Amino acid sequence: MEDPTTTVLLLLALAGLTAGFVDAVVGGGGLIQLPALLLGLPQAAPVQVLATNKLASICGTTVSSATYFRRVRPDPRTFLPLMALAFVGSALGALVASQVPREAFEPIVLVALVLVGSYVALRPKLGESTALRFTGHRHTAAALLTGLVVGFYDGVLGPGTGSFFVVALVALLGYGFLEASAKARMANWATNLAALAVFVPQGAVLWKVGLLMGAANLVGGYVGARTAVARGSSFVRVFFLLVVAAFVVRLGGEVAGLW
């Protein structure tokens, strides 16, 4: 594969910066980064695009996770089992990633985003504050199930993973949006690490592009996490709805063949 031009690299870096910010606040940065990589690297194999996206993403999720951990202090009794099963699910998904066509997932992701966005929009009080729905082992089991299912999806494809983590933690477990975002970033970090553990030995990562986008993603992730912590759950909720709406339009256009 030919090296991308300077212009392409700069545009990919901009995509990484934007994706890092969005991902840190509500997740879904992959829905920005993956299309950018597909457009900027048309000769790259799908598995190379997925692997390079994971390298860029883990840079942002590392700094945003650390920022949330210091400022929100999420409960380790939830985020540790969530991360553990997210890691396992992502590794399993990455093992089959090269065998699953992206086209098979776009309609499913589109429907899921419409349902998720509608659910949050129609429940204005949802996620304003933390009101846990389960306690003890039931809470842990719900966190484990969330980590495994969303983690597997992230390993196979990935776009929208952070948003799915957020809405599951809010709607299923009962967390406020800010605390859900904090836990989602940590789980997303684990899924990125697991996928890279599979992709790197395969030689699938395009390191030059991935590290450049990763540096930009890191900056975006730091700014996004600081912004979310400063603005609180109400800001995260509104930003979540705007991002989901934008992703529905973009994916809906692709499924309908408009672009």
TrEMBL record:
It is found in: Cell membrane. It is a multi-pass membrane protein. Its main location: membrane. Keywords: Cell membrane, Membrane, Transmembrane, Transmembrane helix, Transport. Pfam families: TauE. The chain crosses the membrane at residues 48-67, 79-98, 104-122, 159-178, 190-215, 235-253. GO terms for cellular component: plasma membrane. This is Unannotated protein. It comes from freshwater metagenome.
